[in-house]
Structure formats: C-alpha cells, structure tokens
Amino acid sequence: MENNKKNIPEGESPKPAAPKPKPVEKVKKEKPKPQIFLLSSSPHMATVDNVPKIMWTVIAALLPAVTFGVYNFGFSVLLTITASVLAALATEAVVNKMRNKEITVSDGSAVLTGLLLAMTLPPGFPKAYAALGSIFAIGIGKQIFGGLGYNIFNPALLGRAFLQASFSVKMTTWVAPNTIDAITTATPLGSYKFENIMTPYFDLFMGNIGGCIGETSALFILIGGIFLLIKKYADWRIPVSYLGTVIIIGGLFWIIDPSQYPDPVFHLFSGGLLLGAFFMATDMVTSPVTPKGAWIFGFGAGVALVVIRLFGGLPEGVMYSILFMNGFVPLINRYTRPKYFGEIKK
Amino acid sequence: MKLKSFKKGVHPEEFKNYTEHKSLERLPIPEQVFIPLNQHIGAPCKPVVEKGQAVKTGEVIGTSTGFVSSRVHASISGTVKAIDTFPHPLGMNSLMIHIVGDGNDEWVDTVTGESDWEQLSGAEIIDRVQDAGIVGMGGAAFPSHVKLTPPKGKTIDTFVLNGCECEPYLTADHRMMVERTQDVVSGTRILMKALGVSKAVIGIESNKPDAIEAMRKEAASFNNIEVIPLKVKYPQGAEKMLIKAVIDRDVPADGLPLDVGVVVNNVGTAIAVAEAVTRKKPLVERVVSITGDGIKEPKNIIARIGTPFQNLIDFCGGLSEKTAKVIMGGPMMGLTQHTLKVPVVKATSGILCLTDFSIIKNKEYPCIQCGTCIGVCSMSLLPTRLARFAQVENWQMAEELGILYCVECGSCAFVCPSKIPLVQQIRIGKMCVNEIKRKEKLETA
C-alpha cells in the first residue's frame, strides 16, 4: 500500500520543522524526538498472497508431472525444458529493457510460460525450436500486449500454436517412452483417430504412453492440479465445467455409436486435456473474472475440444479449444457481471 | 447448527487476543479536553460558550439548528480556554472547544438517578436521545435521533442491534456486552419503544462466546429479543450485511435499512441511549480499545470525549519504539493519524498502534485478472474494474458498474494478490462521481 503514492493523494507525515537551536544557549535541552507516523488509506492489513507466490506455486504444482516426463522420456527432455525456460526468461528481460520497464523475470510468470510450453512439446522436439517457441510466447504472446496481466491469449499455448504451424512434422513426431534410440510411436489419440486402436486405461492413467513431455501422466497432473485447487490458485469451476462438458458430450456420442466414437474415460485421460484443464484454461489472466463466466468458459472449451477431436482434422484439440475461448473472455466478462447486492430490477 | 452469515466477505486474522479479556478501565479525568464541533455526519455545531466561561461536565457547549446534527457537551468541568482549530482525527484541522479542567469533574444538575423510562412516550425518548447528543458509535457517527425518526411512509418492524465487531483487533463492543449487559439490553428495549417495534434481534459473531452467553441470559426474560450468533466474517458489521445475516432481507443497493423496515444500532449506542434516557446523561464518554503490537499494555478504556490520544496511550504504557502507524478505528477501515494530539471523538472505537512488522509493504504488480476481489466483494461489485475506471477517470462506466454502491469495506484491497490499492482508488472515484452528480444537479436546478 505504501508504495503506491501516485494513486493516493497522501504522503508520509511531513517532518515537523526542527526548531533552530539558539547558539547562545549553552545547555541543549534534550527534547524527545517526535515520533513520525506513516499515513495511508485503509485497509492496513492484507493477505500474504502475491503474484510471484502464485506463479511459483503453480510451477511447484507442475513439478510432479515434469519429473515423470523426465523419468519417462529420458534426460534429453530436461534439456528441452531448460532451453524453453531460459529462452522465456531472456525474452522477458530483453523486452522489459526495450520498453524501459522494470525487469520482471523474478515474478515467475516467464518461467511458468516456458515450462508449460515445454511440457506440451513432443519429447524429441529440437531444443532450438523449443527456445524459438518460448521467444514467440513471451514476445508476441505476452509482452506485445503490455506484459503480465494484459495478454488476451495464454502465452504458452500461443507459442505452441506457433510451433505447430511452423514445424508441423516435428510437432507430430512422437517417441516411445523409455527408449534409448528414439523409436517413433503414436500417441493414444493418434492411434485412435487414424488406426482405431485403443490404449489400455491403466497406461493412460499412469502415463506410460507416447505423448508430449508433461502431458502423459494423468495421475501426476491430477496431483498438482488438485493441489492448486486446494490452494485456491485455480478456479475450480473451470476444470469442472471443461472436463464435465467433455465427459457429457463425448459420452453422448459414445452412447450413440460406441464403434465410431471413444468413451469419455479415454477422452479424459488422453492427450493434453488434464494439463490443459488444470493449468492452461485456469490461467488467471486469460480466463473470465466472474464465477458465471468461468462456467461458460469451461463449457465452451469442452464443446470446442470434442468437436475438434471427433470431427476435426487433428487428433488433439486442447490447445485450440482454450485459445478459442480465450478470445471470448472480454465478452464473457462483460455479459456475466454479477448482480450487485440489492440490485433493483429494471 | 450452521451459523448465519451473509454472502462473500473475507476472513482477516482476528488479533482480538490483545484486549478481549481485559476488563474496562476508567481513564483518570484528563487535565484538558479538545471537543470538536463536528463529530457526526451532518451540520457542524456552533459554539454556545465563550472563551473564559466556566463549564460543568455535561453542559451543552455546541448546538446546531439543523435536524441532521448532534449537539456536543463539555466532558469535564473547568474553563473554556480557547475556541480554535486543532487537529481532528478525521485528518483535517477543525473548530474545537478547548477546556482546561478544574479537577473536580462537577456534573450539571440535570443528570438524575435511575428513573423509570417505561412511562415515557416514543417521542420523549427521541427527545432525550437528541438532547444527549448521541450518534452511531460504531464509527459512522450518524445522529441517532434522525435514525429513530423514519420518514413518513416507511414502517419499521425490526430493530437490529449490532454486536458483530467484525473489525480485527477491536474489542470495545465485546467488553461492553460482557460487562454492561444490562444497559445494552435496556438500551435495546428503549430503542424498540422509540421505534414502536415489537421485535429485536442482536447479531453477535461467534468469536465472542462469553458475550453471546451473557446477552442471551439477560435477554431471556424478554421474549421479543433474540440473540443470534453469527459466523465470523468481515464486513458483517456493515448494516446491509448484518441485516442479510440476521433476518435475510436485501437492502436495495442505493437504499437504507429503513427501506426494508429495519433500523440498526451499535452496542455502544444502546448503552449511551440507556444512560441518556434513564438518567438524562449526555454522551461525554465512550469505550475505546487501545490495541495492537505497537502499544505496551493494550487495554479497553472508558475515556471522556475530547481526551487527547496521547493521554490514552500514556495510560497504556506508551508506544513501543517500532510503532509506525497509529490508526483510529480498526485495521480494515481505520484512519491513520499524524499526531497524538487528536482527541477521542464520539466515533472513536479504538486506537490501533501497529509496528513496522505488521504493516504491509508489498510491491504492486499489474492486475492478473484473478477475480479474487470479485469473489469477496460483499456488494457483488467488480472492484478491479471500478478501480481501473476510477484510475482512468471514466466516470460514466464507473457509475454504470455501481461505484456508488461500494461500502468501502476494503475486502478487495485486503485480498488482492497484486497488492493494488483497489478500495483506495474506488473511494476517490466515488468522491469524484458524487461531485459530478452534485454539479449536474445544481446545473439542472
């Protein structure tokens, strides 16, 4: 509060002018120093939460899934993650400098973007390209809008969309887990879409499957995601409505024709849905601020996801479903203003 | 049983332990007092004494012809030394009557012993309340006789006594309910009679079990007074929230409690009313909690109105060296003071002294659209948007989004993880919007 002088017409209490000691007086009277008090506008209390704390907590919540990714795909993905995070930090610092703003690398948001981006990349993805994705994510996805808090689209997903568009082959080359020489394999969604092969549920849940670095293990993503919900750093309405919509709409199609459409459990645990639902769609900056808006946002993303997965040309649609709904956030916010207490019906 | 409450709100740490079990202590009569002529909402008083005049305790020294106003009384006996401007705890310098005491504390002879109030009519009760200069003592300082005189066409059916004391640290109301239970209840009954209502509810937060028990015991003999324990939540003591919590009525956003047939009064006001009506004792003293980590011996004090803060702080062992803020009121809505020369006024519920350690010095970050402020706003406004519109001076949008309905409780700024001074910006915005509306009104008139 005290550091925001520009917005509050107030100042610290003016120091009382010190009385000039008369030179003739030999004995100086020792006056007790008048205590100087801070002046500020209420409230004088605040919670201990702050932006860096939120960002670093989200990063901590991602660590189980990251650790499993490294275990699953080998040491090399750690380098991919490092490249992505460092590029994000460097871009943030450079753009801050260019805009003559304070360097904001320590608030954790750039680290989070770099980490999230890396988690959505295939394990064998070239490290330089990963870094390029981060540069795009921070530079174009976030800083160009004015930095933290002002971006419309989730920067990590925007970075991924950039890579998908630029290096579509590399972005869809998958290696099997625990292989020393990268043996190409297919992701569960890919096998289903193009070969109609189901992956066993247990493998889907544990993550012993092909897929992106940090997306394969439902279990470890859930651990981190639920931790975030308990800490209230993610709005529970978004994963609930997003996943719920996918289960219900995906389930409806499955009931209509089980031979053609996958069941809702498969929908839930395959691809990047859980990571997207708990960590990307819940990004505070790019999701609605109102409770009702959060429901609409999750529902819209769920519908978009099922449509892309079942009828689109791509096997996976988490990224586009969230980016698509990000674009609607200002509109959703506007139309879901809560009724104020005692609002008179007009 | 699930405790009643209102929707949304916040849970600040309570810090009541400094003073919640400390009995009321009477401050020795001060040597001098500074009695402001504006201690209430409404027209300030005009002095009716002159410099050099001798006054007795309880003598009227300032009155006003306006109805929405409240007279002031000498709180010690002595001589008027000056009528001049002195620092006021609201932050400005204002006209005060400076009385130097004679040390005798000689009261005016109109103050009587206990008398039976039940023969008095409602109008007579309201007259006595007005004569005693009683205002809302929870902090708003709205003249009580005005509150007790609802405009024609409004019927009041319920009286609500506010014993929430939802501000952290403060315990004045709590101690009054424990130690002066009888006066609180008779004050409630007097106020019921003045309003002509047959039902009263007393809302007390559940962190004061001893007060709930004492009040229940005392109110048990009157079947039309109900004590309702409430869930601890801020800002439950705000009139609209309290009414929602105890009798589940929604006061219109731009309306007053009387629009839903309710009048709310604070515990301290009830005691003052009881004294004024039964003994014709004017409001010359009040309970003040001196608390916080910046004071050596926190206490609940009964102090004369007009006593400089310094006297109360000295009585509590003085400030610790690290004290950085002295606040009149609680930490959520209180006002910081620049000097300890300011006097206790009718609305001084506490003096909170905070050290360096307990002061927030967080860096401000950009709004990350987390929506936490929206989730806690007890009026269901959009604090982040209102603050933004106030900052960019878009008054039209600010008004459209209900900036004038903000009750300034500060919950938004309390929870904001970006440490944006939301309520502060909204407060300025409210002032500007009101100013614009006032000017428009003048132009059209």
Defining key terms:
heterodimer; A: 346 residues; mainly alpha; Ammonium transporter fold; two-stranded antiparallel ribbon; 2 strands; globular; disordered N terminus; B: 445 residues; alpha/beta; Rossmann fold; 6-stranded mixed beta sheet; 4-stranded antiparallel beta sheet; 13 helices
Q: Biggest sheet of chain B, strands in spatial order?
A: 1-14-13-17-15-16
Return the string of H and E elements of chain A.
HHHHHEEHHHHHHHHH
| Number of separate helices of chain B | 13
Low-confidence stretches of chain A: 1-18
Q: Which word captures the global form of chain A?
A: globular
Q: Given the helix and strand composition of chain A, which structural class is it? A: mainly alpha
Total count of domains of chain A: 1
Quaternary structure: heterodimer
Main sheet summary of chain A: 2 strands, antiparallel
The CATH architecture name of the domain at 121-279 in chain B reads: 3-Layer(aba) Sandwich
Radius of gyration of chain B: 22 Å
Shape of chain B: globular
Distance between the termini of chain B: 55 Å
Work out the helicity level of chain B. 25-40%
CATH class of the domain at 121-279 in chain B: Alpha Beta
Strand order of the largest sheet of chain A: 1-2
Could you report the average pLDDT of chain A, rounded to the nearest whole number?
85
Mean pLDDT of chain B: 93
Percentage of β-strand residues of chain A? under 5%
Helix content of chain A: 40-55%
